[in-house]
Amino acid sequence: MDARGRRRKRTHILRVALVLVATFAGTALLSFGGLAAWQGYTENAGNSVGAGTLGHTNKVGTQSCTSVTSTTLLNQSGNTCAAIISVSGVSPSSPSTLATGAVTITSTGALNSTFTMQMPAAATGTLCADLLLAVVDQSSVADYAATALTSQMGATSIRDSAGATTWPGTSPGPAASDTYTFTITKGPSFNTDPADAGQSCSFAILFSQQAA
Questions:
Q1: Is 56-211 a CATH 1.10.287 domain?
Q2: Cys-Cys crosslink for 104: which of 23, 45, 59, 134, Cβ 3.0 to 4.6 Å?
Q3: What is the 3-state secondary structure (H, E, C) of the chain?
C-alpha cells in the first residue's frame, strides 16, 4: 500500500473514532438529561410547634396580681401582690388568734400545672419567736400546720379546690383555683415575754407554678 493509501486509511479510522465519541457523548447527554426530566415532587410545608401558656393570678381582697416568669421580676411597679397578713397593736390582751388573711390562687394558663408555697427567706424580727403560722385551704385541709415563725417554710405542695395536686389549665375545661387562709396565733410565751413589746415580725410567701 502506498503512502496515499495509508493516509486515507488513517483518515477513515480517525473519522470513525470521532463519530463514536460524538455518539457516546450524545447518548450520555440524552441519558442524564432524561433522568433530570423524569422527576416528581411533593412538599409538606407549614410544620410548626407551639408551646402552651402557663400563668396564674394571686388575689387578696380586691387586689389582684399576675404571675411573672422569673423571681427577678417580682414586685415590679404596677404588679405588686398585696400582703396576706397585716396587723398592728397586738398585746397580751389580744385574742389567741392575732390575725387571719386569705389569698386566692387561680390558674390562668392552658397547661396543667403544680403549685407550691414557701417563704423565700426566713421571717425577720424578734417577735417571730412568739408567733405561730398555719395555712388551710377552702376545704379546711391543713396545708401547713401551726409552726413558729422562727422556722422557714420550705416548698409546700398545695391542692386546688377539687383536692388535686395537679391543677387543670384553661384547656379544655375551666381553670382550677383555691383559697388559702393564713392564720397567726400567739405562741406559748407571747403573753409573758416583756421583750415582745414594740417588736415586729415580717415574712413573704412565694407561690410557684410549674408545668405538669
A1: no
A2: 59
A3: CCHHHHHHHHHHHHHHHHHHHHHHHHHHHHHHHHHHHCCCCCCCCCCCCCCCCCCEEEEECCEEEECCCCHHHCCCCCCCCCCCCCCCCCCCCCCCEEEEEEEEEEECCCCCEEEEEECCCCCECHHHHHEEEEEEECCCCEEEEEEECCCCCCCEEECCCCCCCCECCCCCCCCCEEEEEEEEEECCCHHHCHHHCCCCCECCCEEEEEEC
